[in-house]
Amino acid sequence: MGRLPCCDKGEVKKGAWTPEEDKILVDYITKNGHGTWRSFPKLAGLRRCGKSCRLRWTNYLRPDIKRGAFSYDEEQKIFQLHALLGNKWASIASRLPGRTDNEIKNYWNSHLRKRIPDKDTATLQASSASTSADIKPNLLSTAEHESASVEADARLSMDPILHTSPPGLPDCDFFLRAWNSEAGESFPKAHAIKVESDYVVGPAFNASSSGASVDEICKIEAEDATNSGSYSPNSYKVDKSSDITLDLLLDFPNDGEYLQYLQGDPDDNKAST
DNA sequence: AAAGGCGTCAACCGCGGTTCC
DNA sequence: GGGAACCGCGGTTGACGCCTT
C-alpha cells in the first residue's frame, strides 16, 4: 500500500509562481497564518499543491528571508558547518539567519563545492580505502559521508565516554576536547593545512578510535532535534556546551589559511564582499 | 547572428519522521 | 499500539539566461 498523493495532480498548477499567486499567498498568510498546508490552497484560493505553497513561502516569500549574494562570513560558516554536518542543509540554514536550506544547498552545489581542491578528493579516496575508522567526514562524498555517519552513530552508541560530559567540566575543556578530536582536526586538513607534530591527541580521544567528530555532529544534531522537540531519549544528552562548542569552532581565528579555498575564486569573493 | 553548451536556481518529488486519532 | 495524515528534508529536475564557438 503506497502513500496517498498529497494532492490531485490533475487539479493543481505546477511550475513557476506568478506575482499574482505570490500576492494571494502572502496576503492570506499575513491575515490568517498558513494553518495546515494541505488545506491551505483551498482556503487561500490557490490552484497549487500544499507542499508547493509551503515551499514557496519558506524558501522565497517569508519576510525574514535575506536575498542577495552570500557574504564572506556566510561562506566561511557554510564551509565549517558542512565540514561538521555534511549535507544537513536545514541544520546549516538554522545557523545562518535569513538563509534557507534550499538556497544554501544550491549555493553549495553551484559555487562552493567546486572550490574544494581536487587533491582533497584524492586524499579522501586514499583514506577511505585504508580504514573506515579513519574516515574524515569533511572530506567525504555525500554517499560516503552518510554511510560514515551511520557507522559513527553505531560507534557512538557503544562508546560511553562520548555520552557524558564530565560533571563540572568547563566549556573550554569541552572545546579543547572537540578541537583535539577529529572534528577539530578536520578543519586544518580540510584546507590542506599541514599540521605539525606538536598536534596533541588525548589518550581518551585518539582520533582513529573515538569518532569524536561524530561526537560533534551528534551534539549539533541533538541540539537541532531538541529544538524541534523530537530527539530520542537514548540519544546524546545535550547541554548548553554543545552550542558553545560549535560557536567556538566557528569562531576559531581564521588567519587566512584555514579557509584557503574561500579565496579560490576571486570573482565569487568580489561578489560577496 | 544563431546554435549549442553550461551554470544557476526555483520548484518538484519521494521518503522518513512525527503527530494525531 | 497501529495506521493515517501531515510536515520537513535532501536529492533531482527543468527552465532560463549567459557564454562560447
Automatic annotation (TrEMBL):
It is found in: Nucleus. Keywords: DNA-binding, Homeobox, Nucleus, Repeat. CDD domains: SANT. Residues 9-61, 62-116 form the HTH myb-type domain. SMART domains: SANT. Gene3D superfamilies: Homeodomain-like. GO terms for cellular component: nucleus. The keyword Transmembrane does not apply. Its main location: nucleus. GO terms for molecular function: DNA binding. Residues 9-61, 62-112 form the Myb-like domain. This is Putative homeodomain-like protein. It comes from Helianthus annuus (Common sunflower).
